[in-house]
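Progress narrative, work stream C.
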Amino acid sequence: MDEQPAGPPSTPPPPGPSVLPLRGDHGADWHPVSPKLAGVRRVSATAALLPAALALAFTSVYLWWWLAIGAGAVVLVWARLMWVPGVQVRAISWAELPEELAIRKGRMWRRLVTIPYGRIQYVDLSSGPYKRRAGLADITVNTASPASSGDIPGLPVEVAEELRVRLAARGEAQRAGL
């Protein structure tokens, strides 16, 4: 019969939540994304819809009056797009757990993605022109399976850069044991 060598017992992993919920914290340290992301999404929606609204308004005044209905519909769509980003952004959060990264998104259709650190292949950091102006960046965590990959939009640039380095290091350390 083999005996265990005398010495201190192995230390258990740091405590983490046993169940990750779609709502609430349940012991995990959930971090929200920057509220500036809602403003960036609103600017993007306005930039996309403004040409269509102006074209419809011009043609409805000078050519066909019934196109004013289309211009009104574009304005209603724009008004909805001014409200939705705030709701969406408040529903995005992420947590670094002992063995995995967890990302929650969605208000009506909630989604929880957990990415084990050992499966991380590479971590992308990106930022478009509107996000750069707001000081925001996106993190994309890539694994071999697209189903277990995930992204965190709208992080402050400093936070995104630090998180990218931490995730890459954890992925490399846990993958080294394979």
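Work stream C, second folded protein:
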Amino acid sequence: MRTLAITQNITVDGSIEMITDWFDPQGQAAVDMSDVLEESHRQDDRADALLLGRQTFEDFRGYWPVQTEDPTGITAYLDRVAKYVVSSTLTDPGWQNSMVLTGDPVEAIRRLKAEEGQDIVLTGSITLAHTVIAAGLVDEYRLFVYPTVQGRGRGLFPEGYEVPRLRLLESRAFRSGITLQRYAPA
């Protein structure tokens, strides 16, 4: 069975919704993000599938494929990885290596997890994240915690959802002040 990992950029106050400019996918201006990017690539090397909701997929599709000079390597990774978009309205993904998952998303993701392969990573896609969390499908949470407080925005977990206990797998600080917190259900 494959690992389904939710990888999210998150503020100290728990927001994953990017309402303000606390996150920049190409780097944080003059901040040294090389060690964060190195960790991101390490995780990418263990994943062969990216799981996205329709809105995040469309945001990615509108941004990453047109980045012609991307020193981060994110564009190259996103071009080659298998992308699965959960949608009831999208019919043609219009991006190489992309497939639309229709019908019951929980069942589609269970089937995807049962296939042979490496990690499946879900990022962004707040509504889809809430769905897979509530269905108990998440094997690991990989949280890149940014040293900022946004004061608003949707969080990682669905309202009223309780996880009795998580097991810390790793805690690591980066030069930028960002930390990585990896957890698995206990």
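The mean pLDDT is 92. No further action is required on this item.
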